Amino acid sequence: MEIYGIPSQALFGQLLIGLINGSFYALLSLGLAVIFGLLNIINFTHGAQYMLGAFVAYLSLQWLGLNYWLALVLAPILVGATGVVIERTMLAKLYKLDHLYGLLLTFGLALIIQGLFRHGYGSSGMPYAAPPEFRGAFNLGFMFLPKYRAWVIVASLVICLSTWYVIERTKLGAYLRAATENPALVQSFGINVPRMITLTYGFGVGLAALAGVMAAPIYQVSPMMGVDIIIVVFAVVVIGGMGSIMGAIVTGFGLGLIEGLTKVFYPEASNTVIFVIMAIVLLFKPAGLFGTQK
User: Which residues of 218-230 are buried (b: 16+ CB within 10 A; e: fewer)?
Assistant: First the structure.
């Protein structure tokens, strides 16, 4: 069976790949949107923290024999804790300065982290097996859907929507949003705003680490695994609107699908289509599709 001259299996296969990539774009851009929207920090360390999550899973298996599910809990906590240390010891000193200083600091930290791991483990990828219960595939009739990839899509969607609900629809989210606009007022209600900011940054970093663990069985574990994807993720955040939670989710999944379709109908443009879309969006809506002009 063919669709517009393209074998249906090839089309659906590329759509699946696009949806998988979109799941990671959404998760990573969500973490960036949380950090920027609530803390006004452009976190260039995000790609390195995504890589750290994958390495925590890999090393905890090699050294401690911990399985995938334990790593899925452990990695966000450990990497999120390093984010808390970074925020308290470095970023907190830059809040009153121009955003450029935070950008340069996080960019430098990313280079340091990636350089250290590249020195220790080289540039080649290391395999990390999917959990036994997710081996095999579902037969959908028109294609086979690997069980682990189905899990990644569903889990990413649940995590993204749950995060959006907490930030946009709960009292905690209201406090977080109010703290970015008027921290003195929120402080007057007895809420420790600096601690809230620190934990928010740690949560955003934890999302990156969680994505890293989920990506490890698909893309392998490599010190440079965050380098290419973070460039695309920043484009996703810009298109969706800097700081927009729903923009990060919708744009992440949507652009993953567009990228997958481009690989079918015009493969030469698949590596640049997201950046072309970003340029067009910036021309006509500089605040992004879901952003608001300030």
Answer: bbebbbbbbbebb
Q: How confident is the model at residue 12 (pLDDT cuts 50, 70, 90)?
A: confident
Q: Which residue has the tokens 């900011």?
A: 197
Asked whether the beta carbons of 87 and 197 are under 8 A apart, the reply is yes
Do residues 239 and 255 lie in contact, with contact meaning Cβ atoms separated by under 8 Å? yes
DSSP β-ladder status, 137-139 and 144-146? antiparallel
Report d(CA 108, CA 88) in Å as an integer.
17
- Tokens representing 182 are 């008027």
**Quick one: pLDDT at residue 215?**
96
Task: Decide the pairing of beta strands 2-3 and 137-139.
Answer: unpaired
Alpha-carbon gap, residue 293 to 280, rounded angstroms: 17
The tens digit of pLDDT for each residue in 152-199 reads: 999 999 999 999 999 888 988 888 888 777 777 788 878 888 888 899
Q: What is the pTM of this model?
A: 0.93
Q: What backbone torsions phi and psi does residue 126 show, to the nearest 5 degrees?
A: -115, 130
Q: What is the rounded (10 degree) CA torsion for 142, 147, 153, 154?
A: 110
Count other C-beta atoms under 10 Å from residue 191's C-beta: 15
For residues 222, 227, 228, 233, the Cα torsion angle rounded to the nearest 10 degrees is 120
Domains and CATH numbers, the chain: 2-284 (1.10.3470)
Enumerate the H helices of 40-67 as residue ranges: 46-64
Strands 137-139, 6-7: pairing kind:
unpaired
Length of the chain: 294
Residue found by looking up tokens 């905690």 in the block:
172
The whole-angstrom separation of Cα 65 and Cα 46 is 27
